[in-house]
Amino acid sequence: MDYSVCGHKDDILTSNRLHILLLLSNNRAHILHEVMNFVYQRISVIVFSSMLVYFTIMRALKIWASICVFELVSSSMLVCFTLVRALKIWALVVIFESSISSSRLSLRLACLCPSSLIYALFIMPLYGLGFQV
Question: Which top-rank group of organisms is this from (predicted)?
Fold first, then answer.
């Protein structure tokens, strides 16, 4: 090879080395940039998925809490309705027993609860006649 046109042989080798080093440094920077992009993407995916899991868990807990509160309220309402029904039945028994002994007393007790008045006036006589209501 004729080095007379380009200059000295050592100068060409040095420029080739510099060119190779420049390519390597550019490749290193490019590789570092790619690695950082990859790490950034992985970290963002991990953060996004953990946030998604967090919000999903929080939503599930909110739904579970609302169901628990609803069950608690509905069960307490059921207990209240059962107690009210038991009190109405007790009032009906008292009204029925007192209506046998005294109709005036049954009307006084029936005035305490309008639904008991309906039972005392209309439904209890049907029980006395043998009807199943």
Answer: Eukaryota
Cα 85 to Cα 30, 81, 91: the distances in Å are 80, 6, 10
In a domain, 57, yes or no: yes
Gyration radius from the chain CA atoms: 46
Q: Tell me the pTM.
A: 0.34
Question: Which pLDDT band, with edges at 50, 70 and 90, does 2 fall under?
Answer: very low
Alpha-carbon distance of 133 to 127, in angstroms, equals 8
User: Quick one: DSSP state of residue 6?
Assistant: T
- Work out the angle between the directed axes of helices 103-110 and 9-101 (0-180°, nearest 10): 160
For residue 4, is it within any domain?
Answer: no
End-to-end C-alpha distance for the chain, whole angstroms: 120
